[in-house]
Structure prediction request, 955 residues.
Amino acid sequence: MSEVLRQGATQEESHVEGHHNGHHNGHSFWKKWHKAESFISKYIFSMDHKVIAKQFLFTGMFWGVMGGLLSLVFRLQLAYPDTPLPFLEVILGKWGEGGILDPNFYNSLITIHGTVLIFFVLTGGLSGTFANLLVPLQIGARDMASPFLNMLSYWTFFLASVVMFVSIFLPWGPAASGWTAYPPLSALKDLPNMGIGMDLWLVSIVLFIVSALFGGLNYVTTILNMRTKGMTMARLPLPVWGMFIASVLGLLSFPVLLAAGVLLLADRHLGTSFYLSEIFFNGQALPNYGGSPILYQHLFWFLGHPEVYIIIIPAMGLVSEVLAVNSRKPIFGYTAMVISMASIMFLSFLVWAHHMFVSGMNPFLGSVFMYMTLAIAIPSAVKVFNWIFTIWKGNLRLTPAMVFALGFVATFIIGGLGGIFLGNAVNDILLHDTYFVVGHFHVVMGVSALLAMFAAIYHWFPKMFGRMMNRTLGYIHFLFTIIPALLVFVPMHHMGMAGVPRRYYSFQSFDYLSQWQDINVFITIAAIIGFSGQLIFFYNFFYSMFRGKKPTSNNPWKATTLEWTTEDMAPGHGNWKGPIPTVYRWAYEYSPPYLKDSDYVPQHVPPERVKKEPEKVTGEVA
Amino acid sequence: MTFGEFMLLVAGIFILAWIIFSIGHLIELNKNPEEFSDSHNKRTAWALFIIIYVGGMLASAYSVWYYLERKLPEPASVQGVWIQTINDLNVIATGIVFLITTTMLFVYIIRYYGRKERRAEYIPGKIKVEMAIVVAVAIGLMILILPSGWYWFKIMSPAPENAVKVEVTGYQFAWLFRYPGPDGKFGKRDWRLISPDNPLGIDPNDPAGHDDIVTTEFKVPVDKPVALHIRSKDVIHSFFIPAFRMKMDAVPGVPTFMWFTPKYTTEEMRERTGNENFIYEVACAELCGSGHSSMRTTLDVVEPQEFEQWLSKQTAWYETYNKNKAALAESQQ
Prediction:
């Protein structure tokens, strides 16, 4: 079947070229028009999966900066709650009157910071970028199953971004309910900052879910139907497996959040009582009766918990690939890696209520969810040990990507072990909604997912832009990322154990909190350094995009996977100029004992060639 | 640190970072980014080991020491002791796993950094190793979780019959308490009856509510189980007593419960902590709006006879309610 597809794609391509040639003979005005049109169709409303990947990446980077800046504003508030900082009034206007941050706006800042980083950066920016870039290239397809749906996925995401961006600058204030948007707080539209900002927040999330569903459908369809000849599921590189499993997970869980969001909108504007009951607010009793805020929490966390795996499973796949390539060694336990990802996906549907141990839920449910949550530690531990055993007896080439991937493993260990505390229902009675939670999820899905994203960017940058990134700046960037990140989030674990509640505007009202004020200053300094460290990355990224060194070969990392077999370093639409390569083996044939000079056999090199001239199997494209 | 010093420090770090950055940028100009020499790999591996691993371990140790100076006072409720025990057990278990795995990771980095004369070993994985990981982790988790399952049901079980009943109601941004009075029964509530005279919406026609006491003070006797009925008037709050290690959400429309047995009176805790001003503080642990971080109340744990005395001195809610009503009627005439 893939043979047919391959021929189909080649034919289509030649058809498109013929069409272009016909146009070039026209009037000069039309020539210009055509040029303009091709710019739009090439870079803006593009259906090329690689351009869409870059669009996701740039949007994700924009939101990364935005989310980081928002966090710096509230970090300054936490470090200096009393000191008027006049520049706040300059940048925030009425929200920073007299240099003092408005408490409602503080809540808005944490809300928008969380939302954009979780959804726009780590879901859209990470999976959107690398699923788009790698799925067709690594499975040997000319594009996604539906390039149009793919384009639609990005533009819906863009629309969601615009709605969110607009909501931040409205005079009524952006949503201030926390990224979890628990009703009744998010349902009472007369509360400050809960008016139009909250509506736009919900609309933005709904649009984002639509985008994620478009994308996910496309990735799943592409992976199932468009693999090249010989590329069985058991030969897929792990990033593709990661994207596949995360997409299935997203397709099954995102619709539930959509439902939760629509019901919340109905409660806000149509007078329904899904989540509202017995509320006395603003001096009057609301008529709503019979709803339950707990229902929202169930619906929300049914997505909300899988969401962290939607973020981390693709990250795991990307890191597995980077670790194997740079260890010059097969990934340890390929099948176990796939099975553990699949079991994480399966179990992630059965753990959501560990966010609700102290919500008043039936204690029996609490115990069930505790056992399920700790069960998910088993596949996670399998993955961690497999990564460690992958570098064991390897020959580690410490590229910037590799260093970031190792950083991912280190932070994932810290974050994963923090999860053991929170998944334990008894311990959660103390730690729920404290800084321990903040520290835990920032380490495990913030920092480690970001490190994986950076690893992937450093690794596949040549594939995206045809040039290499500056290596030394990569290492400096790594140190300026992981050290401040740990300095920010490890002390938060200790604050949580000492009972410091999260989402506090200041620590001044409580005797037992005031002693943590100096740690707040420390964390703020670390956060500022960590954020500025990203400037090194941005400089490196944009400088290398235009002026970076060109790689000397088509396969700079000497990897086995198909994306490095294209004729051009950064391929055009259609990926391969010639026929799509056929696959003969799995993706991790590194340092097989039958090779002498070379230490890898690419997936597309026929076994006869390996037998005949084992010293020349590197698969360089002639 | 004042804000001025803070800005100076940040500026200093920026300048330092800029210097490192420029050097890094220049170093790379004459190099081939695809070449990873033996010395390069060795330097990078050791830099990772010393900066991230050794530095990280030292920083963690310092962080733990810093925490021990500032941790919560010893758990002051029976349930809090269980919760703290589970927490400490988790610290030890995860601490050991953390040390083992992180040490493996970083030792392998300095042991197996890339060299031209070396080759990686072709090890695609061993099913026995995978099974061993699964079994070991599963057994470890079982051991870790069995006491938790036991304590969870002890903590979450219904309160004993003889428990002192208290109802707490959260609203933006304070807590209000209700004691059932001599009959030991709370009067019915209806949120539609809430008014300035009747902040909890107690039904005036329910005789069980006539002796209820509504107060902003939270006093409980020591060594006796206290059953807390938790409710909310507007949004979700969470009633968190850090010294007891316990919290429970207050959800509008959904009554929730929590019970605990205080171990020490406020006076005893002052002696035990050596802090003359010690007081049991209660915080809100669920984002509830602009006043979330100042939604504070206090708890006073006293000897049982003192508690009885205090309770008998309180005026029933219904008396004040009737008085106010009469006064209102008079003023209208």
Q: What stands out?
A: Residues 78-111 of chain B form the longest helix (34 residues). The two ends of chain B are 63 Å apart (CA to CA).
